Amino acid sequence: MMRRQAAPFAAVPLLLFCATLRGDGNVPPSDVAPSDRPTVALSVPGRTNANVTLAAEGSFVAIAWSASTPAGSTDIYTAVSRDAGTTFSTPARVNSTEGEANVNGEQPPRVVLVRRSATPSIVVVWTAKGSGGTRLLSARSEDSGRTFSQSAVVPESDAPGNRGWEAAAADARGRVQTVWLDHRAHARAQVSPASPGSPHAGHDRSAGDKKDGVAMAQLSQLYLATLGDSGSARPLASGVCYCCKTALATTPDGAIYAAWRHVYPGNLRDIAFTVSRDGGRTFADPIRVSEDKWALDGCPDDGPAMAVDARKRVHIVWPTLATDAKGAPAIGLFYARSDDGRTFTPRERVPTAGIAHHPQIAVDGGGAVALAWDELAEGGRRVMFARGIPGKGALQFRREPAADLPAGVYPSLSATNRGLLEAWTAGAGTDSTIQVRRVD
């Protein structure tokens, strides 16, 4: 059954941002010329608008985000563009039970487009409150986001315990695959120190012994399920770092790729990767993308992002502990590529200025790789963008200069047939908006 969910829409005129960026001792000068780009602002008035994700198919774009009332009730909304992000439809509420969403920046609602003969279907997956912890829900629209089906539980995601930090993608058969981090083993072992529904229930921040931290992580699992298939849910790995976002990508030949932050011996929090080449029936043993040697008695709440290009090359970007130009500890962003899904290139550092977090990655129609992230600069967080520049050896990234960097956090990035589209959260409280702009 389909239901209509009309919502008030904040119609905001196009704004112009002029982009330039000052370099510092850590960032080489860039010769990329700045440009003015129109920016669209979306919001549900009177609510805190945040936690945005994008999906695009040609010129069709779907955007999903959360909108919370001052009392703390949270709903999921979507809007649709048919002109590659120039204009958007009136937002529609996705979740059928009002106020049930339980999301944040590292686990936003995930929007997926499923190819059909004409307009794509829109599927949204999000984390919601449950009686024994948290669960995953999904809903589908077959009329360009005007209405959505009743919310449905992602197969076996309503087990006791907490779960989330999900990713979703449509596979070669048009099925939506979802991966998530799951704590049902914690619930069975009755070791969760936090109350049900807490985003950090079962979290091992307080583990005083590295061995204990690694052992505790074995109760954190990576699960995968196919929407609509009640027997499809199964664990892919144990020992995952709980509270870092996961990444999922697919290819037309039936391959499914997953990436996440793993807890290795010594409490090292590095990125792991696996691939299925038979539509998800079996997965290869996980491999380590890079040995970063980040020992941490807790979760950094900042996971990887992944994209696969037309040549089936896997591109991954992630944050990890590094050093700044003065040798002091600092969070850095790193990139690696795999041409065969079995080994990765040595990591390459992405040029950042300030404390960088929350990376995203996309591949445009021409095969060029682009990144987005937010970083702390001049007392506030700003949204950044970089392009991959081919050269001798590994891919190099060049920051886009911007004199007035757009203030905001948690960007999302997707490729349309008119260029890359970027969205992020700007402002706070009821003054917050979802900003959207084309970046080339």
Distance between the termini: 40 Å
Structural class: mainly beta
User: How many β strands by DSSP?
Assistant: 31
Query: Major β-sheet, in short?
Result: 5 strands, antiparallel
User: How many H/I helices?
Assistant: 2
Q: Shape from CA axes?
A: globular
**Helix content class:** under 10%
Estimate what percentage of residues fall within beta strands: over 45%
Please state the average pLDDT score.
87
Spatial ordering of strands, largest sheet:
2-3-31-30-29
Q: Round the Cα radius of gyration to an integer and report it.
A: 20 Å
Structural features, described:
By secondary structure, the chain is mainly beta. Helix content is 3%, strand content 46%. It has helices at residues 184-189, 210-217, and strands spanning 2-4, 15-18, 36-42, 48-57, 60-68, 74-81, 92-93, 110-114, 121-130, 133-141, 147-149, 152-153, 163-170, 176-182, 221-226, 234-238, 247-250, 256-264, 268-276, 287-288, 305-308, 314-323, 329-338, 348-349, 355-363, 369-377, 380-389, 396-399, 409-416, 419-426, 433-438. Strands 2-3-31-30-29 form a five-stranded antiparallel β-sheet, with no helix packed on it. A four-stranded antiparallel β-sheet has the order 4-5-6-7, with no helix packed on it. Strands 8-9-10-12 form a four-stranded antiparallel β-sheet, with no helix packed on it. A hairpin with a 5-residue loop joins strand 5 (60-68) and strand 6 (74-81). It is globular. It starts with a strand and ends with a strand. The model is unreliable at 1-35 and 191-210 (pLDDT under 50).
